[in-house]
Design goal:
Elements lengths: L22 E5 L2 E6 L7 E6 L8 H12 L3 E5 L17 H6 L7 H15 L3 E7 L1 H12 L6 E4 L16 E6 L7 H14 L4 E6 L6 H4 L9 H18 L1
Parallel strand pairs: 3-4, 3-5, 5-6, 6-7, 7-8
Antiparallel strand pairs: 1-2, 2-4
């Protein structure tokens, strides 16, 4: 995502060659990717995509990973039909582009998704995870949506909600030490604000040597030195969800 010190958006990273185990469905006025475990469950996770949109194979890979851990996983198109960012786009246009896609204005879509999960999938306990743009959206939802149990924000853009820290639900924040888009000073300030204002369980964790997007945009086979941290981030995400859903 954009940052004051670095105005261009993040690199797409290693694009996964992955087709997905789930299916695309219509959920109210939006499309969504849904994957369900073989065994019946009332636990679900909403997966909020990054700037590269709901069809990015990397994000669907994570949704399917959640399903293999027993969750119904749904990745809706929170851009509501607007085009996702493309690596070939002109970086100079990014600020104007992202203004039309506000991570703090997804409540209508979330309500539709929650209704679908409850009515069509039998879900009763629902959490949310999000990456980059979606990580900021998770923080927004943790501040105001009473129907979610917990959230995991992965390298969410902190400045988007820098003055809002009274979380309603337990929230786990994942950051990379070498993230060019989220300086460590912002992470430190987030921790201080949460300590002062947050009344629920939370954790902020920084992964050594990791760059923006490492949990879902890096492939272990291409980045063997990062493999332990990629796997740790994914397992930490699942452990947090298991604890609170």
């Amino acid at each position: 995502m954009a940052n004051e010190s670095r105005p261009c958006p993040c690199d797409i990273g290693d694009r996964f060659d992955y087709g997905g185990r789930g299916q695309e469905v219509e959920v109210g006025h939006i499309k969504a990717y849904v994957c369900k475990p073989s065994a019946s469950t009332d636990k679900a996770v909403i997966v909020i995509h990054d700037i590269f949109g709901w069809q990015l194979p990397n994000t669907r890979y994570i949704a399917d990973m959640l399903t293999t851990n027993g969750y119904i996983a749904i990745c809706p198109d929170f851009f509501v039909g607007q085009e996702a960012w493309k690596p070939s786009n002109d970086w100079a246009s990014f600020d104007d582009w992202v203004k039309t896609r506000d991570a703090g204005k997804i409540d209508k879509e979330v309500d539709v998704v929650l209704k679908y999960l409850k009515d069509q999938c039998g879900a009763k306990k629902i959490g949310v995870v999000g990456f980059c743009w979606g990580g900021a959206a998770v923080q927004h939802l943790m501040l105001k949506n009473p129907h979610l149990k917990t959230g995991v924000s992965l390298y969410g853009v902190i400045r988007r909600f820098e003055d809002k820290h009274s979380l309603l639900h337990p929230t786990f924040f994942i950051f990379g030490e070498k993230d060019d888009f989220i300086p460590l000073e912002q992470v430190t300030l987030l921790e201080q604000k949460l300590k002062q204002n947050c009344k629920v369980d939370y954790e902020v964790k920084i992964y050594p040597g990791q760059t923006h997007g490492f949990v879902h945009r890096k492939r272990e086979d291409i980045n063997p030195q990062d493999k332990p941290f990629i796997e740790e981030g994914r397992q930490d995400m699942i452990n947090w969800l298991n604890k609170y859903i």
